Structures are given as structure tokens and as C-alpha cells.
UniProtKB/TrEMBL annotation:
Protein name according to UniProt: 3-phosphoshikimate 1-carboxyvinyltransferase
Positions contributing to 3-phosphoshikimate binding: 39-40, 44, 197-199, 226, 346, 373
Record InterPro entries: Enolpyruvate_Tfrase_dom, Enolpyruvate_Tfrase_sf, EPSP_synthase, EPSP_synthase_CS, RNA3'P_cycl/enolpyr_Trfase_a/b
The organism of origin for this protein: Nesterenkonia massiliensis
Biological role: Catalyzes the transfer of the enolpyruvyl moiety of phosphoenolpyruvate (PEP) to the 5-hydroxyl of shikimate-3-phosphate (S3P) to produce enolpyruvyl shikimate-3-phosphate and inorganic phosphate.
Pfam families referenced in this protein's UniProt entry, alphabetically: EPSP_synthase (PF00275)
Amino acid sequence: MPHLNTESLVPPDPSSTAGWRAPRAGAPVRGQVTVPASKSLTNRYLLLAALAEGPSVVVNPLHSRDSRLMLQALQSLGATIEHLQDWQGTGEDAVRVTPLPAQLRSGEAMVDCGLAGTVMRFLPAVAALTGLRTAFDGDPEARVRPMGAVLEGLGALGAEITAEDTAGSAAIEYLPFTVHAPEGISGGDITIDASASSQFVSGLLLAAPRFAQGLTLHHSGTQVPSLEHVEMTLSVLDELGVEVSSESPYTWRVEPGPIPAFTVRVEPDLSNAGPFLCAAVVTAGEVTMRGWPKRSTQIGRRWIQLLRDFGAEVSTAQEAGGDTLTLTVRGPEKIVSPGTVDGTAELTPTVAALAALAEGETKFTSVQHLRGHETDRIAALVAEIRRLGGGIEETDDGFRIFSPVTHGGMVKSYADHRMATFGAVLGLALDAVTVEDISCTSKTMPDFPAMWLKLVRGEAADTAGVGDFAS
Ligand SMILES: O=C(O)C1=C[C@@H](OP(=O)(O)O)[C@@H](O)[C@H](O)C1
Ligand SMILES: C=C(OP(=O)(O)O)C(=O)O
């Protein structure tokens, strides 16, 4: 399919009067983009700051619903949060976190997880360290996201996990639930099945330096998805002075010990850079991003190879200071499928937008756990690509796209930021794409609609003007 087709004969979906009309690129998109900070790093640093020895400062944090929920939850557990403007004259803002009281407390706390995996999977272990009886709940969509393994792990470490409608010893698999460990958690050696989410592993390892015996964690299932995120957890702990090791695949060890107070600056979110870089790919345009970290534990570092695999030219230039690159992506005349893409985890909906515009079949493998993301992303991608005339079917561990989308229409968002941005990418190349609810991008990128319009119009798309942890 020609990706700058302006002559689509298919009329817009009649329901498209509602929702957000995705801008169609009348010409190759050319521009520069600055994306906000990484969700995964921001929420790890905020959590670890709350467990540190003294006040810590997280510079250039992400301002989004997920990070706001993390801050609110840490406050509810006893941390103090201060927002700092223009950190040391850098022009960047920061958050100072005064940690949770070190001693066990009695009382109650509540954690609203929204739809944030990093809140619902990372904070039960932190709550168990406080002694507080802590109630966890979230959005209706969050109540179907798997929670079992992290709760089972905490249970094995001595925490009491209860849920109103779960009888007796039945395992608790979903929100809502209550975590209570009046004696705290002393740690030890446990095995969980983390095949449904890497966040089960991260959620236990992040709190583990504060367990008296630390933690040795084994995974019992076939595969841990999104291993990059476990690598990120280990690397952040190591960077902050915690002793971590992994002697064999799927076994991790965190030694007990204090987390020294720290100051850290958060990298841009490379996963969220994806849709902007793809704008160049699907319009034969050129998009530049400054500040791309030379080394990163983010899964979004894979964009450089992924975009090349779809036919784009990606070049990098070293920036002053040496740690960052300027990335330039030039889109091809025709998007070509690489055949197979494996284990793309949270990048998958964005990669699927490229595959849905490419010549040739693309098979997505090792992504079965996407069924437990913000929505069942496999079902959502199948439904939306079919709605736009594409050929797609589910497979055992993912899906395959075998013919490109042919026309615009309504793209449902399923409360999922990445389904919304998937619709935006397709909207550049198809006439009359409407995204049902673009506001769900507030989960990780509240300014997405304005940034997107700026980029498509050829203005510099940056995050200026994003408010204080607004949703
Ligand atoms: O640890 C993290 O920050 C994340 C881990 C991944 O979860 P899954 O392993 O469930 O994919 C990823 O998809 C999510 O967006 C963020
Ligand atoms: C899976 C995602 O998020 P969460 O942190 O809520 O799991 C995502 O951002 O794609």
C-alpha cells in the first residue's frame, strides 16, 4: 500500500465524529522531538528513594498519571514528596523524596494503582515493609491484570494477603487485595512463576535490599517476558550501591543493606520515542531526537535496529558530553517487513503499526503476555487492524500480520496509551483515522496530542508546558 495515499475511496467510519481525528501527513513528516522521561526508570527511582537512608532527588522525572500514582502511593505509605523547580539552575524540575519511616507501624494505608503495572506489581512488597495494612485497588481494566505471582511470593515471605471475595486459602490473582505484614519481611529464598510479567520479578527485587536476609528469587516457568526490564531493575539497584547478582538464568540475588540517599537524572522514555520515530518511517520523512542515551537498559533501545529492520535509515551522532546521541531516522520509500519480530513487549503496538503498513508478512513471537497489559493487546491489535482492512490472526505466542491495512476508520483505544498512539501512527498514512480516546496517553505522556500535532506540522515537538504530575 502506498503510504502517502491521499485518494482513499473509503469514507470515514460514521462513528468517527467522536474521538480524536488523527492528523494525516500530507507530506513527509520532518522535525525534531524531545520526549519526556522514562516511566519505568522514574517509578523505580521514586520507589527506591522512598526506601533509601535519607532524602533523595529524582531530577527530570516523568510527569504522567503512572508517576503521579506512584508518588501518591508512596505518600500514603509515609514518604514525603516535594516538587522542586529549576533544579540547581538546570531548568529541569525534580522531586525530593523523604523516605518512609524505617520502623514498623500499625494502621492502614490505601494505594490507588490506576492502570499502572509498576504501581500494582512494585508496591505490595514496599507496603509489606511498613507494617501497615494496605489496601490496593485500581481502574476496572487493572482488575483483570495478573497479580498472582507477586502476591504468592510475598505470601511465601510471610505477608498476609487477603481479598474480600476470596475464600480461605484460594490464591489471590487480581486487584483488589490487602497486604499486611505486622512483623515486616525478613526475606529468604523463594520461587515464583513470572511468565505473565517481568514486573513480578522486579517488584520483589526492588524492595529486597530492605529484607533482613535479602532475597534469592527463582523463576519456575518457561520464559520471563521483557527481560530487559529485569535487567533495568538490577542495573538501577547496582547503580545505587545495592549488591545484586544472577548466578544462573532466572535466578537473582539481592543482598540486604542500606540504600544510600541519592540524586539521579532520568533518561528520556525510549519506548515513548517510538511513535515519533515511526512518523518518519511511515511518511518517508525525517525525525531527529536529541539526548538518546548511548547506553540504556530501556527496551526502547531496540528501536534503532527495529526501524532499520523495517527499511528505515537510522544514523547517530555523538553529542557534547559524550553520554548521549542525536538520532536521525529517515523513512524508506516502501516499508518492508523483517519477517519476524521477537519479544518486543511494550513496543509491540507501535511496531505493529509499522507492520500493518509494510509489504510482506510480519510474525510477532514471544509476546503472549501482552494479554495482561493495559488491555489484551493481542485481541485489541487483531480487532483494530481488521477494522482497518488489514489481515491479521492470532498465533500461539503472538500474532501475524499478513496483509496491510487498506482504509481509515475508528481505532478503539481500550484505555491503553499504546493502542492510542498505534492509531496516531496509522493515521499519518491512512485517510480519516479517528482514535476513540486519545486522553489515555496521559498514562505516560500527557502532552502527546499537542506534541504529535507539532511534529506533523513541522514544528519542534517537545514537552514544554507539561504541568505538575497532572493526569
Ligand atoms: O518493569 C517495568 O517498568 C515494565 C515491565 C514490562 O512489563 P511486562 O513484563 O508485564 O511486559 C513493560 O511492559 C512495562 O511497560 C514496564
Ligand atoms: C505494559 C505497560 O505498562 P505497565 O507499566 O502498566 O505494565 C506499557 O506501558 O506498555
